[in-house]
Amino acid sequence: MSFYPWITRGEDTEYLTNAHLRGQAFLLDKELTITHLPPEAYGALPCAKLGQDVTQFIYERGKLLAAQEQPELVAVESEELDPYPGRLLRENAANQALVALHHMATPETVARHGSPEQIVAEAERRASEAPTRHLNSAQEWPRLLDALGWDAPLRSHWLSRLEDG
């Protein structure tokens, strides 16, 4: 299953939920660590990052709900993804988000990014539309790749582009 192309944060959550929806189980080794070193230029304000995280978690919750309508996917309850991200994908995700956003909101961040209520409302709007669209396009993706493989001129074109890059 492909990544949702409009996420700005949370690729780990996207990967985890996609794997579970496809019935893929995996174990994490608690002894392994990952050091994340974002580029200096990234420098997004914590409130902006939190707003992006809120959008991602509400989207992921919407995807879990939408996936229940897709017979080829495994139904996954948020509790199965505990402690992370499951605790952030519960029915009360919007309320948790509002509390966190209100805690970090300042007049400057509200002027720049919107009120906590506006951020959550926009995230919920996207989550009501995007997961079903994304799940449908994810089903089409393997068929598209297969069709491209059989179209010799198109395959040749894209292979030459990859070689040039």
Verbal overview:
The protein is an all-alpha fold and 165 residues long. It has one domain. It has six helices and no strands. The longest helix is centred in the C-terminal third of the chain and has 35 residues, at 116-150. It is globular. The two termini are 25 Å apart. The model has no long low-confidence stretch (mean pLDDT 83).
Globular, elongated, flat, extended or rod-shaped: what is the shape? globular
Q: What would you report as the Rg, rounded to the nearest angstrom?
A: 19 Å
Strand content: under 5%
Number of domains: 1
Number of helices: 6
Low-confidence stretches: none
Summing up helix and strand content along with how strands pair, one would put the structural category as: mainly alpha
Secondary-structure element string: HHHHHH
What is the number of strand segments?
0
Cα separation of the termini: 25 Å
Biggest sheet details: none
Mean pLDDT: 83
Helical residues, percent: 55-70%
